[in-house]
UniProtKB/TrEMBL annotation:
The keyword Nucleotidyltransferase does not apply. Belongs to the TrkH potassium transport family. PANTHER family: TRK SYSTEM POTASSIUM UPTAKE PROTEIN TRKG-RELATED (PTHR32024:SF2). InterPro entries: Cat_transpt. This is Trk system potassium uptake protein TrkH. GO terms for cellular component: plasma membrane. Pfam families: TrkH (PF02386). Keywords: Cell membrane, Ion transport, Membrane, Transmembrane, Transmembrane helix, Transport. It comes from Enterocloster lavalensis. It is a multi-pass membrane protein.
Amino acid sequence: MRGSFRSEVSGWRLIAGYLGVVLMLIGGIILLPLLVLAAYPGEAVWASCFLVPGVGSVFAGYLFYLLIRGREKLRLCGRQDALIVVCSWILAILFCSIPFQMTGQYNLNQAVFECTSGWSTTGLSVVDVEQCPRIFLMFRSIMLFFGGVGLVLVMVSVLSDRHGMRLYSAEGHSDRLLPNLVKSARMIIAIYTGYILSGTFLYMVFGMDWFDALNHSIAALSTGGFSTRAESIGYYNSAAIEAVTIVLMLLGCTNFLAHLYLIRGKFGNFFQYCEVKFQLFVCALFTPVLAVFLVLGGFAGGVGQGLRDGIFQAATALTTTGFQTVPSFAVWSSPLILLMTLLMLIGGGTGSTAGGIKQIRVCIALKSLCWSLRARITQKRTIHADALRKLDGYEYLTPESRLENLEFILLYMAVFTAGTLVLCACGYGIGDSMFEFSSALGTVGLSVGITAADAPPVVLWAEIIGMFVGRLELYVVFVAAVQFGREVKGGYKNRKRGFGSYVG
């Protein structure tokens, strides 16, 4: 019995053990950019910036992993799953910021900002990409890749664990592609990688070199928006490259389960899915409106160019990617800024790499409004079944689920308002502040010029918090904070009780 007890692990040891696994993964991720040295050996001078934190992270992670190695892991208590997920992301951001700080060119605020933007797949940047070494540009894209699929999903794909589903769900993955969780995780990574390789090939066909093609393909599919060019996609001035980018962005903001239906040729299920229909409708609605304002504002040379730029801006904002093909948003008119802000607030699909409120929540809110108006207007006593079309049929919505949906939107808008207020308090205009913080909270990456290396620290940290809670969604971060307080309180009581017993 005594040996059996010692083989079991729970509480903070279980949490630390899982975080140890994550730290080892983070260490491996930090070491990946070293592969770039095979193509660019002249950048070996930066190798130590990745070797030191990478090896250190793996070693520290292994020490923590020893707490659960070979032991029976007991059930996660309370909301420890949320705490593990949030702590995993914090560790990833902090450790990945070390290479930037070791260059001596970035302080803590700037390094943490850049890594939060990468892991959250936002794309806001304080890095001068024209002067930045290629190994660091690839590092940013690697963060986008793993930030898009999620740390826990990668961990589940290599580790079969009975607690995996709770961690998987806590990170924001709402669907399993296959009955087996590990196979589902691997399937998602396989689909994700296949799209990236296809996008890289098409980019190279249309004129990009391999390095730019790979980085832009990762950034487009992860809806991250980091570019290797200061002018972003606009640098290439190519309709073909823009078309490839739009397709990748739309794929990236679509639920991973929907991709399985698409790959298996079930096009009816795919195009009838409420989120797919909604995103195509919104793009079709906003494209001509944006085109008109672009032409009237002198940002497009004609109707054709206006439509081309309009559809790209609609897609990059709705998918929360952040690529751009037009001049700085700082000189855009107020109607254009408002339209783009609305698109960024809506965001992409659930279970995708995109951020924002999410399209299905907006669908439910709009349909709830229509259903309420219908109930008030109609005089017939007819009972209607309120439902949404999902991939495998209709899902009927209860009043409770509709209320929960509205509660999340209200909370999201409250955080958006608070963040906007912080930026306004720093001296920026209301329109620019709304645009910039909606970009951070929605993990978009478009900017009117507020975000920069010399921005006030309070602005950078407000956006860091916005990007973080926007990627993990608000409830998970809140629940993790409460659980952390419980763990600290519980540990203190246990130590006090143990000390008292010893004295007695």
